[in-house]
Specification:
Radius of gyration: 20 Å
Number of helices: 12
CATH class of the largest domain: Alpha Beta
Helix content: 25-40%
CATH superfamily of the largest domain: Response regulator
Strand content: 15-25%
Number of domains: 2
Largest sheet: 7 strands, mixed
CATH topology of the largest domain: Rossmann fold
Shape: globular
CATH architecture of the largest domain: 3-Layer(aba) Sandwich
């Protein structure tokens, strides 16, 4: 792999900017990145940011965009919807970015969306899965990640292989978790599978014994869990400490199985995880050349291998934005928005192009991603044997 020069300049929240990127800084094209770098889901946000850095470096090594270097302006939304709004406004008003990527959680993204309408700036959504995001009539939204409905329907084709008779849900109490529980429940019941209890937890909750005691009493054979990797670790450990077993299936693609192996140990063994990239098997990706190159560069930089299952989102997101800027021929918000409808990017997850969702004349863009299922076996990530 090429030894890419690090031309990209990263700006933190404390960095002061003086003028428009297109006026005083015509030698750079700025892209905003709104991610949780601290707080409850910080691991995921940093993984996404690392993937974005790889994409920007690759773009700059190839000559940049429209003859200018790509410059990521990265803001920390602190795993909080109000902070996500503040970060978006800083990126748009202070840094004058013509486009941004964010904001990881569905709750953060939904909070930011009115600002996109107010200022007329497009946002590429790399992670959020709530169905509300692309049907609310916001024409500045373009999502490459699957909705919970898409994920559940794709998994529905594999349900018979698992032999599930009754399933419970334990989900984070926000748009992401509640949406996942609703969509997966619909798919399961449509196939004659009983749904037992649905328990919720705050994103920062550490003691889940009350919820897990109810789940234990339910007697289901399968537990679907939707939350970030930090909390999934707690769930697996506390199930083991309470002395009961369940087939655990995580949804949402934010489980980072290698991190679970490190942090949860034997408690993670046997668990299944729905992902949108399986870096242990890059040759199975739709675009294996892109996937293998990304994995190699990630490893070369010494990033945590566990983060690849989310880091790819940042890479695909920035590469999709770059394709739109090239097609637009200028780094201006409305031109980028229009161009996003016509991009076709060979991404790590697969080919990226947008279909219209939402009310006529105010449609948002939605990609149709690929989905993978892996299992932790004997402390290693493997393809499941069902």
């Amino acid at each position: 792999m090429r030894n890419w020069p690090r031309k990209i300049v990263l700006a933190l929240a404390s960095t002061a900017w003086l003028a428009s990127p297109l006026a005083a800084h015509a030698d750079t094209i700025k892209i905003g990145v709104n991610q949780p770098l601290t707080g409850a889901v910080a691991a995921s946000g940093n993984y996404v940011a690392n993937g974005a850095k790889i994409a920007a470096d690759e773009l700059n090594a190839g000559g940049g965009l429209l003859g200018a270097d790509v410059k990521l302006i990265i803001e920390d939304n602190k795993s909080n919807p109000s902070e996500a709004v503040a970060a978006a406004e800083k990126l748009i008003v202070r840094d004058k970015v013509p486009v941004m990527m964010g904001a990881w959680s569905s709750t953060y993204t939904l909070a930011v969306m009115p600002k996109l309408m107010e200022y007329g700036v497009p946002m590429l959504v790399e992670t959020s899965s709530s169905g509300k995001i692309t049907v609310s009539g916001n024409p500045w939204i373009f999502r490459i990640s699957p909705t919970s409905e898409m994920e559940a329907q794709a998994f529905g084709g594999k349900v018979s292989e698992f032999g599930i008779k009754k399933a419970d849900f334990l989900v984070v109490n926000n748009d992401w978790g509640l949406g996942a529980a609703n969509e997966f429940s619909k798919v399961l019941t449509s196939q004659g599978i009983q749904v037992g209890v649905t328990e919720t937890m705050d994103a920062g909750a550490q003691d889940l014994s009350a919820q897990l005691s109810k789940i234990k009493a339910s007697g289901a054979d399968t537990l679907f869990v939707t939350t970030g990797v930090e909390q999934i670790t707690l769930v697996l450990k506390q199930i083991k400490s309470l002395g009961f077993s369940r087939r655990v299936i995580t949804t949402g693609g934010s489980s980072s199985p290698d991190q679970l192996v490190r942090q949860a140990g034997q408690a993670a063994d046997g668990s299944y995880h729905i992902l949108f990239f399986a870096p242990w098997f890059p040759e199975r990706a739709q675009n294996p050349d892109v996937a293998e190159k990304f994995v190699a560069e990630w490893n070369k930089r010494g990033y945590d291998f566990a983060g690849l299952t989310e880091g790819f989102r940042g890479y695909d997101g920035i590469m999709t934005i770059a394709a739109a800027i090239r097609k637009a021929g200028k780094a201006e918000p409305e031109a980028i928005r229009q161009a996003l409808w016509n991009v076709h990017v060979k991404g790590i997850n697969g080919d990226i192009r947008f279909n219209k969702q939402g009310p006529a004349g105010k449609e948002s863009g939605q990609n149709l991603p690929n989905i993978y299922v892996v299992q932790i076996k004997d402390g290693k990530v493997a393809l499941p044997t069902l």
